[in-house]
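ESCALATION

Customer reports they have been waiting on this structure for their group meeting. Please prioritize. Original submission:
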Amino acid sequence: MYRFLLTPRWLGGLALAVAAAVAMVFLGVWQWHRYEERTAINNRIDAADSVQARPLTAVLARPTVAGRAGPGGGSDISWTKVTVSGRYDPAHETQVRGRTVEGDVGFEIVTPLVLTDGTAVLVDRGWIPPAGDALGAPEVPAAPAGPVTVVGQVHLSESRATAVTRRDGRLDTRRIAVPRLAREMPYPVYGSYVLLTAQTPGADPAFVPIPIDHEDAWQNAGYTVQWWLFAAMALFAFGWQARREAHGSPGADGSASPGMGAPAVRAHYPERRPGAITRARAARKARPLDRVEESDQKATTRSARPPE
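Update from on-call: job pushed to the front of the queue and completed.
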């Protein structure tokens, strides 16, 4: 009954269905890994207030070349709580324009913190409003002049780097792309920056803390289930079509019509017998004729009569 599955057309269809199902399974696995990564990030965000801060040098690889950023690390270190000590370098401070906090547009101030070994890490000290309109130069509180200990969370470098210019005595840019900003620094710079949450001595109250949004991990979980359902549906559709081909699809009257793999059903026609033909002719003769038929019949009879 299912021998038709060994034909080239059905073997090709099976290969296509299996290939599509395997691809969808792998897409689901990839989405599941994204779900695990985002869940781990959310856990680090939630645990930041309760866990002990780790030394920055234990989390990020040390940079070695002046004017270059070191390795930035991956998502496995994103939002890790760290602590680092050094001195701020306001001469290479950066104002990052067009940043929104609670619906207001302003600036984030990023200041290099130079460690005792001569390397530096960029510290986002917080958000401040513009002076006047949204593009007005902000009034930035001065960074502490002495030694500073910073506690914060690791933020990966932002993508799509924009141009860096000088404005109001500071570097000015739109995105915190660490490799691009590192070119403006005279020392090696760590590959990720730190979002400040606490500082000793204390941070100026004019700074608004940058809110940290959670990752949408459940979206990836939903995509995982979706791709795996699609894989099951691809195989089910092939099996359903093969069964339909083997048993025949139902016709309009509910009976089974032949499929490609099922034997054809021979149509039945009534037999023609000589007696049936004779009875049909007799019935036509017995039927009353209208005037037109009667006139035609008489004309035919006269034309068939031999001449006298």
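Sent to customer with the following note: The chain has six helices and nine strands.
Escalation resolved.
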